[in-house]
Amino acid sequence: MSAFFLFLLLMKRIGVMTSGGDSPGMNACIRAVVRSAAYHGLEVMGIKRGYQGMIENDMELLQMKDVANILQYGGTFLKSARSKDFMTAQGRKIAYDNLVNNQVEALVCIGGNGTYTGAGIFYDEFGIPSIGAPGTIDNDLFGTDFTIGYDTAVNTALDAIDKIRDTADSHNRVFFIEVMGRDSGFIALNAGLAGGAEGILLPEIMNDFDDLIKHFDNKSKRKKEFSIIVVAEGETEGHAFQIADKFNALFPNNDIRVSVLGHIQRGGKPTANDRILASTLGNAAVEQLIAGNKNVCVGVVNNQVVCTSYNDAITQRKSINPILWNLSKILSH
C-alpha cells in the first residue's frame, strides 16, 4: 500500500476555505463540504479569509450547526481575501505550520485562478493535497460548464438591464451598460441576450465595436429610438465610458448614458441553480479527496461531475457559446 493511500485511510480532518472574489453560492458549497465530510466521518476546519487566514492561524472547527441556515445567503461566512503574504515562500511555510498544528491534512479550496495556483504551489512545496471548487461569477474557469455564482450574477445583471430599459425607452436614450467579466464575456453575452440588447461587446470577439457602428449606420434597418448596449469590462475597445465616448463622436445626435453595474453583481441570494451546483461540487470535492485524488478541481460538464487538473483549469481557455453569439446578432436587428 502506497504512503499516500495509507495517509487517506488515516485522514481525520480537512480544511475548507474561500479565496479571491466572493460569489453567490460559496456558503452552499461550504455547507456541502461540512455535511459531506461528517457523513464520511471527517472533521472540517473552517479557514477564515482564505490563504491569509491560514497564515494568521484564523481557523475554527466547524460543526453541523455552524453551517445550518446559510445556503440561501450570498457572500461567504468564512470571509475571503487576496493574500500577498501567501505569494512568498515564508508566508507559505507559516501557513503549512499552522495547518500541521491544527491537524489539517487536506484542503477544499473554493475560488478561481489565483486560488488554484496557490493550492498547486502549496502541494509542490509541502505536499498538502487539495481539491478545488470553482467559485467565480465570471464563469471563466476551464473544466466546468458553469462556475458557482455565475447564474446569480447573470440574473442580477439582467434585473438591472430590465430596469434601465424602462428609462432608456422613456427618454429615447442609448445606454451602455458595463457588466463584470475581466477576461471573459459570459455574463455580458447571456445577460445581453436575455435582456434584448441591441449590441453586446465581448473581449473574445474581434471587431465587435465596428459591427455595432455598422448596425447604427444602417438607418433603414434600425427602427428603435432607444438602445441597450451591454459591455463586458474586459472588452478590448475599453470600458463602457471609453466606448460611449467613441460612439458619441460618431453619433453626436444620440442621447447617450453609461451605467456600470460593478460589485452589485457579486452579491445577493444565490439562485436555485447556483445552490444546487455549489452543493454538488462541495460534496464532490470531499469524495474526490476520500478517493485519493489531489491537485484537481471539480466541475460539472454535460450534467456529469468531472475532474480537471489545476494547470488545465488555469491555462486552458473556455470559449463562449457561438450559437448564442450568432443568435444575439440575429435578434438585435
Describe the protein's architecture and organization.
The chain has 333 residues and is an alpha/beta fold. It has two domains: 3-149 and 270-315, Rossmann fold (3-Layer(aba) Sandwich); 151-266, Phosphofructokinase domain (Rossmann fold), CATH 3.40.50.460. Helix content is 43%, strand content 18%. The chain contains twelve helices and eleven strands. It has a seven-stranded mixed sheet with strand order 3-2-1-4-5-10-11, sandwiched between helices. The chain has a four-stranded parallel sheet with strand order 7-8-6-9, with helices on both faces. Helix 2 packs parallel to helix 10 (272-291) and helix 7 (186-194) runs parallel beside helix 12 (322-331). It is elongated and about 70 Å long. The model is unreliable at 1-7 (pLDDT under 50).
Ordered list of secondary-structure elements with their pairings:
Layout lengths: L2 H8 L2 E6 L7 H14 L3 E5 L2 H6 L3 E4 L26 H13 L4 E6 L1 H14 L3 E5 L15 H22 L1 E7 L6 H9 L4 E3 L6 H10 L9 E6 L7 H11 L4 E6 L11 H20 L4 E6 L2 E6 H6 L6 H10 L2
Parallel strand pairs: 1-2, 1-4, 4-5, 5-10, 6-8, 6-9, 7-8
Antiparallel strand pairs: 2-3, 10-11
Helix pairs in contact: 2-10, 6-7, 7-12
